[in-house]
TrEMBL record:
Transmembrane regions: 250-267
Coiled-coil residue spans: none
Protein name: Glycosyltransferase family 2 protein
UniProt source species: Rhodocytophaga rosea
InterPro entries for this protein: Glyco_trans_2-like (IPR001173), Nucleotide-diphossugar_trans (IPR029044)
Gene3D superfamilies: Spore Coat Polysaccharide Biosynthesis Protein SpsA, Chain A (3.90.550.10)
Family: Belongs to the glycosyltransferase 2 family.
Domain of life: Bacteria
Lineage start: Bacteria, Pseudomonadati, Bacteroidota, Cytophagia, Cytophagales
Key word Membrane present: yes
Residue ranges of domain Glycosyltransferase 2-like in the record: 11-183
Alphabetically ordered keywords of this record: Glycosyltransferase, Membrane, Transferase, Transmembrane, Transmembrane helix
A Pfam short name: Glycos_transf_2
GO MF term set: glycosyltransferase activity
Amino acid sequence: MHISRQLPLVSIITVNYNKISVTREFLQSIQRITYPHYEVIVVDNASIEAGFDELKNEFPAVIFIKNPFNTGFAGGNNVGVKVAKGAFLLFLNNDTEVETSFLKPLVDCLLSDERIGMASPKIKYFDSPDIIQYAGGVAINRVTGRGRFIGNKEKDSSAFIENTPTELIHGAAMMVSRKLLDTIGPMDEQYFLYYEELDWCERAKKAGFSLYFVGQSVVYHKESTSVGKNSALRTYYLTRNRLLFIRKNFRGFSFWSSITFFFLVAFPKNIFFCLFTGKIKLLVAFIKGVFWHLYPKNWS
């Protein structure tokens, strides 16, 4: 733990799953930050890959937790939450690296107004550091059930340097206040992987908190290192959880319009794409993601 009496403690939480070398690079990056008052918590989600004990020896100041089961993104982070002592909690993907000064602008943002419960930095692609992945987000569409990140695939510019209210934070890098956590609780572990942070956003807004994009804070993302950009696992959970998000957060017209859109537009579109491109594994994963909702136990 790095100590300063003047600034609030930030608990930086990350989850590792079979990517020791990626987590090592992440921790090396965190070691270089200028903010003086933080702790780092690494939760290993029952990895098979060896090397976790080596990380403990390399980074003795870090708190390491070995999860006996893989409880997913939300579950792994929630394990870290249980031991975190910070006034603010920063959830960072282990496939990110940060600019040395990235942390204080996030802290300053949340300190500026206690109604600000969540904030995400500017996120850029690690392999294309001038290109933006996230600079804020547009609310989940009540018809399509899809959201949109502002600035995605655009070149970074002065248009993306201000702190601005946003509808969506980004799961790869998100800071939350202890007040928000105490008010609405942690991420919903039923999602396991993907959409859990979007669900958290909805819960935060319903509780009266605001969300911010912080343009002076920059993080670089090695996107989808853990599961692969076009993996069957990713397809399964994105499909399953898109519908789960709709079920949990939409009511009335919004619910029925988004469900109708999914089955009349998204469903046939994805089936055709997988068949046309010969991606049979993705097709099976997509169908399994839909059929998960047919089991009564998944509606409890």
